[in-house]
From TrEMBL:
Key words, A-Z: Membrane, Mitochondrion, Mitochondrion inner membrane, Oxidoreductase, Transmembrane, Transmembrane helix
Protein's UniProt name: Cytochrome c oxidase subunit 9, mitochondrial
Membrane topology listed for this record: Single-pass membrane protein
Pathway terms, separated by semicolons: Energy metabolism; oxidative phosphorylation
Described function: Component of the cytochrome c oxidase, the last enzyme in the mitochondrial electron transport chain which drives oxidative phosphorylation.
TM helices/strands, residue ranges: 12-35
Family, similarity comment: Belongs to the fungal cytochrome c oxidase subunit 7a family.
InterPro entries assigned to the protein according to its UniProt record, in alphabetical order: Cyt_c_oxidase_su7a_fun (IPR014368)
Lineage, highest ranks first: Eukaryota, Fungi, Dikarya, Ascomycota, Pezizomycotina
Subcellular location: Mitochondrion inner membrane
Organism annotation: Remersonia thermophila
Length: 60
């Protein structure tokens, strides 16, 4: 006997969306905390060092 198809599309859609949202959030966090935050901190530290050197040269 052939089983009815009803519900399979909805179940598949929910599964696909859950996987897509989960992977998207995972990859977004990997980019943000693995690349963006370290690069931003490195940039900020570089400019802080430049400002400290400039202030030391001016005697402030």
């Amino acid at each position: 006997m052939v089983q009815p198809i009803t519900g399979m599309l909805r179940r598949g859609l929910i599964t696909d969306l859950s996987i897509a949202i989960g992977l998207g959030a995972l990859m977004g966090n990997a980019f943000w905390y693995g690349y963006h935050v370290p690069r931003t901190n490195a940039r900020d530290n570089y400019y802080k060092k430049l400002e400290e050197e400039r202030a030391a040269r001016q005697g402030n």
